[in-house]
Amino acid sequence: xxxxxxxxxxxxxxxxxxxxxxxxxxxxxxxxxxxxxxxxxxxxxxxxxxxxxxxxxxxxxxxxxxxxxxxxxxxxxxxxxxxxxxxxxxxxxxxxxxxxxxxxxxxxxxxxxxxxxxxxxxxxxxxxxxxxxxxxxxxxxxxxxxxxxxxxxxx
Length: 155
Hints:
Layout: H1 11-25, H2 28-38, H3 64-69, H4 75-81, H5 91-96, H6 110-113, H7 141-154
């Protein structure tokens, strides 16, 4: 506060400050000026220029997970890159062969490498062995006497 710079502001000071500034700030002139600046009323479709939207164009990229799943290569490129080889393969080589996975088409997500942790199930032993109580009015004499007897038995 300008009047008492070393004094901390209390909740009562906040009420005083808001009480004086609120009527000054929320006048019809200020409210209409806020709508006019943003172009809402009167309607101004050219209030924002294209330069103000340039920062959002950086994020106009395709989702990489979609690119991994949709590996649709043009047929012409595949056929031109294939080379036919006449190689004699014996039957023993075929029986030893396992499934082949091409690394170029394999898309591995971080979740597959290290899955998200799962929450452990809650055990009932965490209660500490304490007996669950009931809602009571302890000023009633019958309950009060019963509770005092239980305390005496424990000691």
